[in-house]
């Protein structure tokens, strides 16, 4: 059996992240995806016909996001018809899993060039829209109708909002701590925007009708006092809209290449995929899986917390990151150094690729070597990816 090939990240690009009903709200999801695909082809200079596959993440695959949005986006971009596409759903980790699948394909030797990414327009297709459609057919959610599920988990509430409250209580994270974290996310993101740190990774969107050049999410005027006035999502809880990720629109894409493809196409890789881990945990607590998944990823990679120069862990809710920080000994200043989804938004199917794009550019800007990305996901799962800057 031949040796496993390396999987290299050749380039990574994203749209600005638009806030709900913001600058990208009126853009068809396929056109958002097409935008980053064209940008990726232009930046890498490869022949698009040489791409073996396009793997995109997307949730709530109905309406403008139905019909295999990976394939539709590629065709909407005017790119060669010979290139196939596949759309996957691992909940919030969908486009991070797309990177995993792309890397696994080139490491196996079966593919040379694979595009990985994701797209989501939450302004047009709201969160849990697919479940709402299912309700019309008498199936209100993916769980309650299952005898096996009820036998195992009873009638426990299955909700990310409920899970965030469970995490805050389990790790005894106060509302004030959550809000201080959220404020720091906005400040870090605003500083990154003002410093021009996102300019290289963003391909501004402008189709003549809709235009957006910078992330819309960071709130420069938010304060602890204004957060304290918000009602909690649960009357007896600690989570408010201020300590949850924003509803957003956007897309991102990366080109993953094998060693042979790098040589054949004269490419200059920017990083290599060092380790890929996926792990399950309690589906009711749901958002805690990044903790054991990070431990496993570090152990399997032969690395320690001190080896990691930058972390991107999705800020689905503030307690996800704060609980992770209490369990994983990585310096807080290395975690979400340019803000996270609380400030920058969380376009579900695109976020994994967006985080990796941002992490790669941050490592290059700061000279860091290893970056670790972690994502909590529906069903109590987590993807963790470690990349090494070259």
TrEMBL record:
SUPFAM superfamilies for the chain: Thiolase-like (SSF53901)
The keyword Transferase appears for this protein: yes
Annotated InterPro entries: Thiolase, Thiolase-like, Thiolase_C, Thiolase_CS, Thiolase_N
Domain of life: Bacteria
Keywords recorded for this protein, A-Z: Acyltransferase, Transferase
Thiolase C-terminal domain location: 268-389
Any Pfam family the entry gives: Thiolase_N
Signal peptide feature range: none
Domain Thiolase N-terminal span(s) in chain numbering: 8-260
Family: Belongs to the thiolase-like superfamily. Thiolase family.
Name recorded for this polypeptide: Acetyl-CoA C-acetyltransferase
